[in-house]
Amino acid sequence: MPFELRLLVLCLAGGLPALLGLGLVLASGDFAPDLSIALVSAASLAWLVFGFAARRFVIYHLQTLSNLLEALREGDYSLRGRRARYKDSLGEVMREVNQLSETLRAERLGAREASALLMKVVDAVDIAVLAFDGRKRLRLVNPAGERLLGRSESALRDQTAAALSLESLLEGPERQTIQHRFAAGSGRWEVRISRFREGGIPHYLLVVTDLSRALREEERKAWQRLIRVIGHELNNSLAPIKSMSGTLQKLLSREPLPEDWREDTARGLDVIGNRADSLGRFMTAYSMLARLPSPRRSKVDLRPLVERVAALDQRVPVLCRGESLSIHVDRDQIEQMLINLVKNAVDAAEQTGGEVRVEWRSEGDGVRISVIDSGPGISNPDNLFVPFFTTKPEGTGVGLVLCQQIVEAHGGVLTLVNRDDARGCVATVELPVS
């Protein structure tokens, strides 16, 4: 039987024993027949009325709950059930349904706001974003993607990846850099592919970034920095050479020559020679920095290498401490790197009369080498690895940059920080063992 009929039968069955008992009492007593019939009729009518009322009460609230749940299923979270009271079974059910509706409403509002923000971000970025469904048909494209493909969203939507000449990119690796020609132009592009599922069906997200503009901008900045540094160094050397050459020319053109013309000429030529030597050292350092070869690795015992480097400079004591380790590196490059770091540490420690320590130990799959000095410390850490920047009167500004290139070519990391426990600096080199 349907639920409504079963409910009615149970309600009527609940009052049937009382009605039958009343009939038996009236039939066996001294009541008049008309009175007995009237009492039985009234009791039967009340029995039926209350049975149907109970059925209606239960069915009404169940239908109310059904309507509320249907509204939730359809996405309408504005309806609320009445009589959501505590310490009432039906009220508790209504209250839970109302809270569920409010929770779903808040979640949908948050999802819509997040989706709107995401679309704003996707539209604002200068990176082409294209989404394809399982049949590789375009479903979403941002304005940068429209510019990349040279067509509007309405013309691109539902187009296949093959029709857009993008199928090879969807089937390629997840991340690659390619030379390609799009409608927006040709150049170098970074392509990223992400795969996700929606409704159990695989989808594709294609992100294309133009690298040509960024590379040209970085190349232009690099050329500007290089020309500025080289121009500054050339001016520093050529200006006194030109000035001294003019002075010597005027001196030698005087008749008669002054008595001390030989001393003046020697001093002038000495200035010209010093500046020419300084310019030569600068160009040699630049050539070394620009032509660093790839490492030629071999097995190297670290202790003898460090001790040999420490013995090269005797101005201040250089203490060596570490375990016996072997690493696969380019011996000459690592030795040159250590020479530069130790020389910088000795120069710093000499100013304060301190000492220099070189320590090393194994750490996991690598080795850590620390060059510790007790000098004045680092005053300008932001320019440590800026090429040609130096605070030394005779420095070239390429020593630390060369060390960094050597370490990174070996897959390691070079850091320089001021000491925490005392005055001075710590240069740390982290290298893989193999």
From TrEMBL:
Keywords linked to the UniProt accession: ATP-binding, Kinase, Membrane, Nucleotide-binding, Phosphoprotein, Transferase, Transmembrane, Transmembrane helix, Two-component regulatory system
Official protein name in the record: histidine kinase
Alphabetical list of PANTHER family matching this protein: C4-DICARBOXYLATE TRANSPORT SENSOR PROTEIN DCTB (PTHR43065:SF46), SENSOR HISTIDINE KINASE (PTHR43065)
Molecular function terms from GO: ATP binding; phosphorelay sensor kinase activity
CC annotations in GO: membrane
Highest taxon listed in the record's lineage: Bacteria
Localization per Swiss-Prot or TrEMBL: Membrane
Domain Histidine kinase span(s) in chain numbering: 229-434
EC number(s) from the headed UniProt entry: 2.7.13.3
SUPFAM superfamilies given in the database record: ATPase domain of HSP90 chaperone/DNA topoisomerase II/histidine kinase, Homodimeric domain of signal transducing histidine kinase, PYP-like sensor domain (PAS domain)
Transmembrane residue ranges: 37-58
Organism: Wenzhouxiangella sediminis
Pfam family name, one: HATPase_c
Claim: Magnesium is one of the keywords in the record: no
Catalyzed reactions per annotation: ATP + protein L-histidine = ADP + protein N-phospho-L-histidine
Stretches assigned to the HAMP domain: 56-109
InterPro entries for this protein: HAMP_dom (IPR003660), HATPase_C_sf (IPR036890), HATPase_dom (IPR003594), His_kinase_dom (IPR005467), HisK_dim/P_sf (IPR036097), PAS (IPR000014), PAS-like_dom_sf (IPR035965), Sig_transdc_His_kin-like_C (IPR004358)
Keyword Phosphoprotein: yes
